[in-house]
Amino acid sequence: MANIRDSLSHTKWLCKYHIVFTPKYRRKAIYGQYKESIEQILRQLCNYKGVEIVEGHLIPDHVHMLVSIPPKYSVCKFMG
Prior knowledge:
Elements lengths: L5 E2 L4 E2 L2 E6 L10 H18 L2 E8 L2 E7 L6 H5 L1
Antiparallel strand pairs: 1-2, 3-5, 4-5
C-alpha cells in the first residue's frame, strides 16, 4: 500500500490532485506584485480548508498546483 500519511476518524487517505487553472482568455497577468498576492491568497485559502499544497508554480498565463485534499471535500467543492 502507498505511504498513507493522513487519517480521519474512520479513514486513512492519500488523495493528491494536479490542478491547472488560467486567467480569462489566458492573459499573461500573473507577474510581479500579482504573483506574490496570488501566492498568499492561495496559501490562505488552502489553510482555511485544511488542504496541503505539495507543490505549486505560478506561470505568467496559468497556475499549476499539486494539492492533497481530504476526502471530505470534492475537487470541485475545493476549487469553488
